Each structure stands twice: as C-alpha cells, then as structure tokens.
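For the sake of transparency, this paper describes our internal protein records without simplification. The record that follows is passed on verbatim for readers who wish to inspect the format:
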Amino acid sequence: MSTIKVLDGGFSTQLATHVGDIIDGDPLWTARFLVTNPNAIISTHLDFLKAGAEIILTNTYQASIDGFSKYMGLTEEESLDIFSKAVDYAKEAVNLYKKEIKGDKNIINENPLIAGSIGPYGACLHDASEYTGKYCSSVSEKVLMDWHRPRINKLIDSGINILAIETIPCKREGEALVTLLKEYPNTKAWLSFSCRDDGCSIADGSNFHNVITECYKKASRGQILAVGVNCIAPQNVTPLLKAINGRCKKEFIPLVVYPNSGDKYTVESGWIKEEGEYPLHQFVHEWLDLGVRYIGGCCRTYAEDIKKIQAEVKTWENKKQT
C-alpha cells in the first residue's frame, strides 16, 4: 500500500470551471457557494476524485461564524450547520465517485478520505493577512483557540476523517491549534503553514524549521500526521524542506506540501501571473525524496494538475521498488 497520499487542488480554481470567474473578491470566497450552489461544490469535489485525489478537503477554508453572520445574516447555529453541509457535500461526491468506479480494478484512490479544512483566523478578515500574520501580535492564544473550536467541533461531529489545518501564517496560531487538538485525542490532522519566499521563514517571520519541529513535538504523539507548507510557489518549496529530514536527524518528520501555481495574489489586484514556468508536477520526485508524504495543489491548480501529480507519485514509487 502506498505511503504517499495525493490531495486535491485549488478548490476555487476548479469551482470556477462550474460557476464562472465570480469567486475571488467575495469576503466569503468559495464558502458562499455552500449556500448558493451545492451542486457545483459536489461537482468540484468529484473532479478531483476522478483526477486521482486520495484525500479531498471540505470547502470550509474561509467559512466562519462571523463571516456567515456578517455577510449572509445567519445565526451561529445556522452558520455551523453550513459546516455540516460542507462535509455532506464531500461525502456525496465520494459516494457518487464510488458508484462510478465500481468494478474498476485499476483505480488508485478506491477509498478516498475527507479532510476538514481549517483555514487561519486571518482568512475571515479578508485582507490577505493569512499571508502576513499581522493580526497575531494582537490576538491572544485563547482568542484563537476559542475562535477555531466551534469549527473544529462541527467538522469532527459531521464525520470528517482527518483535519487539514492550513495556511497558518504565524507561530502563535500554529501552537494554539496544536494545543486545541489535544481536546480531540481521537482526531488526526496535518498542520501546514503560509511561508515567505526567502526559503526559511513562515509568514510572520518565524523560522519555518523551528516552528514546524516544535509544533510536531508539542503535539500528542501520533496526532499530527504531517507538517509543512501550502499556497507557496513550487520553486520556493525545496529550500524550506531541505534541512528537516537530513541524515543526522534522529526522528523522521512526515511532510505535507501543496503549493499554488506560482502566481501572486493581492487584495487590490487579485492574481497576477509571474514570469517563468514552474509546473508543480516537475518537483514531485524532489519533494518525496525529502520526506513529503501528503502532496497536492493549492490556488490556481486544477484537477488536471492533480492527475499529473498522481502520475509522478506512481513513477517515484515504482522506482523505489526496483
């Protein structure tokens, strides 16, 4: 059985193929479609499953009680119910997929898992602070834990398999979430950070290597499946990972990586295409050699990109077996 798990790709990017380019700029981002267009949510999940994703993430990255209250006028109970619906839509996609592949013995992802997406506090601020972490100096660990707890509760109660804690921009929030996870001893998660392009820092300037090592060791044993980085340009991943599982390390730390396409995002201008082509799939072997065990795509990556990643993972595993 494969030790590598292929994740899905950029949910908003693939969703746009079903609803048109009307997603970016909305303060609820893709979460609005949990209310307005559930069929498009299910279809997007299904696209990734057909492409070979072994784990799909719920469409809850930018979902929050405050966001649904402010922009849709929903109560706390109604807002939390949307989290349950997000899990239901992922389950429906898995069920549809299983019916479609029934009897096909060549399928890689026969029993896909559902990861409950937990985005950072900064995502609900709608000011791109998940890429800077500027809010962390003024928000206490207790506030962060109290803000995340209802979302995590609802996703777990709704039947997700694991948690995907992603795009965390600051050390304080990462540590707060590791502490919070201890309240759910039967739940496993990966923890992925938003990082700078300097090859050594998470978004708030803290040392990436130190932060992920501390978080991994601070967690209850076996609860963190992997630590790593997401929504960063593919060419900037390897420098972050190189020192983590070196020859002298006593403990292997499993890593998770799901970069974006390499384009840059600003609140004012949206996505801006960067010069140079760095196809994500061309780095797959390099990352797997460094200890990556969960791999996929983030913003501006499509189902087609996941298909290419899955093919590269198979090639890498075949080489290891020969």
